[in-house]
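Possible regression after last week's pipeline update?

I re-ran a chain I had predicted before the update to compare outputs. Posting the input and the new output here so someone can diff against the archived version. Not blocking, just want to make sure nothing changed silently.
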Amino acid sequence: MLGVELRTEHAHKVESNLSAIQRVEVKKRFADSSVTCLGYGANFEYHSPDKAVLRKNIDQTKEYIQLCKDIGATGIKVKPNDLPASVAKEKTIAQIAASLNEVGKFASDLGQLVRVEVHGNLSQEIPNMKAIFEQVTEKSVKMCWNCNDQDLLPPGLEPNFNSVKKWFGDTVHVRELNVGEYPYQQLINLFTEIKYDGWILLEARTEPTDKIAAMLEQKELFYEMLAKAKKG
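New output (post-update):
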């Protein structure tokens, strides 16, 4: 387990209020370890019909992209979080895509990626994510598969996966591989087939007593699934 995505408002406390010296210290801490800091897992979202709220989310995204650059990371995770019923779906989709293009251009200029988590009410449905990305023009904006139950809606996991795989970036979120009904073996098979070479990030939701033992268990499960996938 050699990569980490820092999270907002968590114990990591790597936020935009860090001074220049503190940012250098964070960068050095990762550089001196075997762990790669991939970036920042933010909650910035771009669906609000309120223009002031939308602008605040875009501007704060840029602040944190600069933070990612300063600490030696490679990108930021953001999310669409809804398709409000009060607005035509097509309008919100266009707004989200335009926002991603704006922050994507800013990120590109700093050598960073914008990783868009498949997330939110209605927006996490794969056809809606596909519609958003069909309007994204910035190459620095990538999709982060998130292992939602909605991935399994008709026509099913494999067709949904294939419909958006050309936009995948270098991060994928999974939950515990032995919790719930999500078909993780099938997912690992699909990523193996496309020769995915990014990070699989464990977004754990349980609170095991022995966290180290639990991490080791997940690592073993992952490599077992990977071995099965490679055998075909």
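Follow-up from reviewer: compared with the archived run. Residues 125 and 150 are 6 Å apart (CA to CA). Marking as no regression found.
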